[in-house]
């Protein structure tokens, strides 16, 4: 697979983004979102407003993955960014997550953030944990048994951090 194009989300992308979000959320393996999430609820949660940004990874007209990024908190915490990533099942293991993650880190750096913090990385999502560590993130803590995995039971959520 060639390197996907990363571009800002447009309204026309929603059907492809929703397909990915609904697939990931229904699996209940990597995101602590309600599996009954509706399309309108997902859109309100996923599509960021400035200063945040939502992007898609695409190949031609196909949406392969998506990411959202922005300040982790408001006010005195607004100097730290956060981001979330989802890749469609058919595109996993092909570098789409890596391209999206690098884009988000570069965006945060260019946007003047001091760091990026991921608040809830499921510890059993080994591919994501390793990817983030390759990008320089450190696990700064784990909230034990705080995610109900469908086959593994209660597992921890990592807080991961990358300071610039």
Keywords:
164 residues; 28% helix; Aminopeptidase; 4 helices; seven-stranded mixed β-sheet; alpha+beta
Q: Would you kindly provide a written description of the structure presented here, covering whatever features stand out?
A:
This protein is α+β, with helices and mostly antiparallel strands. Strand 2 (53-59) and strand 3 form a beta hairpin. The protein has four helices and seven strands, in the order βααβββαβαββ. Strands 1-2-3-4-5-7-6 form a seven-stranded mixed sheet. 28% of the residues lie in helices and 37% in strands.
Sequence-ordered SSE layout with sheet pairings:
Elements: E1 5-8, H1 14-27, H2 39-46, E2 53-59, E3 62-71, E4 80-87, H3 96-110, E5 115-122, H4 126-134, E6 138-149, E7 153-163
Parallel strand pairs: 4-5
Antiparallel strand pairs: 1-2, 2-3, 3-4, 5-7, 6-7
The helical percent reads: 25-40%
Task: Give the helix/strand class.
Answer: alpha+beta
Tally the structural domains.
1
CATH class: Alpha Beta
What fraction strand?
A: 35-45%
- Corresponding CATH architecture: 3-Layer(aba) Sandwich
The helix count comes to 4
Give the C-alpha Rg: 15 Å
Shape: globular
The main pleated sheet reads as:
7 strands, mixed
Uncertain segments are none
Number of extended strands: 7
Intertermini distance: 31 Å
Give the strand order, joined by hyphens, for the main sheet.
1-2-3-4-5-7-6
Oligomer: single chain
